[in-house]
Design goal:
The structure holds 2 protein chains of 2 kinds.
Chain A: H1 2-15, H2 26-31, H3 36-68, H4 74-96, H5 98-104, H6 108-111, H7 115-126, H8 131-161, H9 171-186
Helix pairs in contact in A: 1-8, 3-4, 3-7, 3-8, 4-5, 4-7, 7-8, 8-9
Chain B: H1 2-7, H2 9-34, H3 41-49, H4 63-71, H5 83-94, E1 112-116, H6 126-130, E2 136-137, E3 145-146, E4 166-170, H7 194-203
Helix pairs in contact in B: 3-4
Classes of the chains: A mainly alpha, B mainly alpha.
């Protein structure tokens, strides 16, 4: 039981890392990794939303779409669910905890367009996960995203001051670095 | 129920989406009223960019009031202590063109810290009253001194001093203020193509 969940977590964090192995959510990965501080804020916000959205879309699918035989509506329904979850979370956090809102606030609306969130929701259906499995899978995917985003941001901070040949400066060396990181993460294949 | 869904699949799909969307919309509408937030979040972000010298050179009583004024449409180029870097950051945040610094409010200077020549100080407390960040320590007829780590270098204490014993010294570079220099672009006339240098040599 516990072993199953830990395998699910490790699988989502390392082996099938959403960014570097499945290539989902590359937009925030390249976009908000220029500073370590913003990367941490983004990671926390994504962890929060991804776990919640994974559970909510699982409920929507199994309580509404499946009984009505409308499985083909899952993509558009999940987009709706994710957008509402993100908006609602932002409103609640802004009111209840201004400190948390200062950390997460700017990044929360950006998550609506993070395709890893939709990817997790759809993969939950494909892999026929139970509710608890969906919750853990979403959390693991988010932890994996946070891990590589923070690692990558730390590297890019060093790259910004490194003596990189001029044509490679900026996003170009970022892409090269991401590719090398991706190669490294491919090495986890077969771990679980 | 199920028969009806299979008989009219399009209508069923439409109803399901409306049934999903309407409660969600209602939930968000309710949340917008229930969790209405006070304050202007954009003013907070602007305030975070401003240098917090509280010097009032912009014509506002401090950085926070100026941030609120910018959120209300005030020009962003009135902050001399922040200089071009602050204007650029504000322009990025508000998505507007970055205007040059408004010379009317003062010029950008190197960061300074106030220093009181203590044997000349007569203990009049006038500089203490002028300091916007309470960085000057002292009492009436006692010698005053500046808490260097609190001083924002705003110049406001220099004017009221009757014996002119306050100097503005440039801030010394320490481990806390040192930054790694960004690599400078090597040259503007890069020899990208090998023949470029040949033609340049021939011309010379």
């Amino acid at each position: 039981m516990l072993a199953d969940y830990s395998i699910l977590l490790i699988g989502a964090i390392l082996v099938n890392n959403f960014v570097l192995v499945q290539f989902l959510g590359l937009c925030p990965f390249m976009g908000v990794s220029n500073k370590l501080e913003t990367a941490m804020g983004m990671s926390m916000a994504t962890t929060f939303v991804l776990t919640l959205a994974s559970a909510c879309s699982h409920l929507t699918y199994h309580l509404l779409l499946q009984p009505l035989g409308l499985e083909y509506l899952r993509t558009i329904s999940f987009i709706l669910v994710i957008a509402v979850v993100v908006q609602f979370t932002e409103m609640v956090v802004r009111k209840s905890s201004p400190l948390l809102h200062r950390v997460l606030g700017v990044y929360l609306p950006l998550i609506t367009t993070n395709c890893a969130v939709l990817g997790v929701a759809l993969l939950n259906i494909n892999k026929d996960h139970s509710f608890m499995q969906a919750l853990f899978y979403g959390f693991g995917a988010a932890l994996g995203f946070a891990l590589v985003l923070i690692l990558f941001a730390a590297m890019r901070e060093r790259l910004a001051v490194a003596d990189v040949p001029e044509p490679f400066r900026g996003p170009a060396i970022g892409m090269v670095t991401a590719g090398l990181m991706s190669l490294a993460f491919m090495g986890f294949a077969g771990l679980v | 129920m199920m028969a009806w869904v299979t008989d009219y699949p399009l209508l069923a799909a439409l109803l399901a989406l409306v049934g999903l969307g309407a409660p969600f919309g209602a939930l968000l509408g309710f949340a917008a009223v229930r969790f209405r937030a006070e304050g202007n979040p954009i003013a907070d972000e602007i305030n975070a960019i401003l240098p917090q010298t509280q010097c009032g050179q912009c014509g506002f009583p401090g950085c926070r009031p100026y941030a609120e004024a910018i959120a209300g449409g005030e020009a962003i180029n009135k902050c001399p202590p922040g200089g071009e870097a602050t204007i650029q950051a504000l322009a990025d945040l508000l998505d507007v063109e970055a205007p040059p610094l408004d010379a009317e409010h003062g010029e950008e200077k190197v960061k300074t810290v106030a220093y009181i020549r203590e044997d000349e100080c007569i203990g009049c407390t006038k500089c203490i009253q002028a300091c916007p960040v309470d960085a000057i320590l002292g009492a009436a007829k006692q010698m005053h001194t500046v808490i260097a780590s609190e001083c924002t270098g705003c110049d406001l204490c220099v004017e009221p001093c009757p014996v002119d014993c306050i100097d503005m010294l440039p801030l010394e570079e320490s481990l806390q203020t040192w930054h790694w220099q960004l690599p400078a672009p090597r040259s503007n006339n890069l020899e990208i193509i090998a023949t470029d240098s040949v033609t340049a040599e021939r011309a010379a």
